[in-house]
Amino acid sequence: xxxxxxxxxxxxxxxxxxxxxxxxxxxxxxxxxxxxxxxxxxxxxxxxxxxxxxxxxxxxxxxxxxxxxxxxxxxxxxxxxxxxxxxxxxxxxxxxxxxxxxxxxxxxxxxxxxxxxxxxxxxxxxx
Length: 127
Prior knowledge:
Blueprint: H1 2-22, H2 34-40, H3 74-92, H4 99-121
């Protein structure tokens, strides 16, 4: 049961990532101001890992382009959340039914978390 909840949340994190990547202009993130916009906006957030937002100046801090990239922008942060939750779900997983049934349940859980986030929660309401 714990693994199922973790997989739903992992799906939601994946929904955030894809919303940022594919629905930025229709998302609630577009209205963010100041540093939050710099952290979420895929057009500029990838530059957060570099000194003065310039790739030519090198990494902003040790590991900012590698092992600590998840601290530099929302897309990488939610990727870290998704992968971490998958890892914890694997550790916490206890078989419920046959492995095929469990696989299908976990896949549905991930897809539900993704769909709720990607299709409903993060998109601006049409007026």
